[in-house]
Specification:
single chain; 265 residues; mainly alpha; 9 helices
């Protein structure tokens, strides 16, 4: 129970912690107020509680495919938000910059709702087995500590980069997370037959298991999958490109606007 709780909590905490760290660095680079972070954390906590309480009922929806479809929907919503964040963070329009804190707050709230609900359900179930409470909660604390530490290290690691590289690196990491969201949503929809099955492209579980700490870290950062299917790989590429292209388009629009204003002067 101890090792299982370490791995499970690490998996749930790590992805959200890294996403939040990247958004905080991006927010700092754009000189935005960090109040969106507190709002997102509060909404995420509320969402995690509501989702955990109702997850059994949700699972019965749509011929017992409700949980997978809801989680996939949350992942795709996060992908959409990351696409808008990429676009607006490079845009010169004041209205676009003004909306960024709201987008970041919603993104954090959705991520925490999804990850937090799993943690609440897992730990709540353990309370019914008194002999497992101490090792489980000890392992959960260690897993949470590792996940949060990885987020802190990423935050300060990004800030330690040369100033001209910080923004581009944040966008690249958000694009990788966007690809992960699309890939995992595809996997969930495949499990409930909303997406057709496709052949597995490779199996790297022998060299790097998904349930290892490096595997969890790579999953959170780049969406590592030991046995990805063809449709998952395609979805990953689409998610990555959506965020990357949106940021590029925003930058080009910013560049054209600045060039036009300079020409007018």
């Amino acid at each position: 129970m101890f090792l299982n709780s370490v791995v499970l909590i690490l998996q749930e905490i790590l992805e959200a912690a890294l996403l939040i760290s990247i958004l905080l660095v991006l927010s700092r680079q754009l000189q935005l107020s960090a109040r969106w972070f507190a709002t997102g954390m509060i909404l995420g906590g509320i969402g995690a509680f509501i989702l955990s309480v109702n997850l059994a009922t949700i699972s019965e929806w749509l011929d017992y495919a409700g949980q997978e479809i809801l989680i996939a929907g949350i992942m795709l919503a996060v992908l959409g938000l990351l696409t808008l964040i990429g676009l607006y963070s490079t845009s010169a329009l004041w209205a676009s910059r003004h909306s960024l804190p709201y987008l970041m707050s919603i993104c954090v709230a959705l991520a925490l709702s999804r990850e937090g609900a799993e943690i609440v359900i897992y730990l709540g179930g353990i309370l019914n087995h008194q002999e497992s409470v101490q090792p489980t909660f000890t392992g959960a604390g260690i897993g949470a500590g590792i996940g949060l530490s990885a987020g802190v290290l990423l935050y300060f690691g990004l800030l330690s980069l040369p100033a001209r590289w910080i923004f581009c690196t944040c966008i690249l990491l958000l694009a990788l997370i966007g690809g992960t969201m699309a890939s995992q949503a595809t996997l969930l929809l495949t499990q409930v037959d909303w997406v057709a099955y496709s052949p597995v492209l490779w199996d790297s579980s022998i060299w790097l298991p998904e349930d290892s700490i490096p595997g969890h870290l790579l999953y959170a950062l780049v969406g590592y999958e030991a046995t990805p299917s063809l449709f998952q790989a395609i979805a990953y590429g689409i998610g990555f490109l959506l965020v990357s292209i949106s940021a590029t388009l925003g930058y080009l629009n910013h560049f054209r606007s600045r060039r036009k204003n300079t020409g007018e002067k």
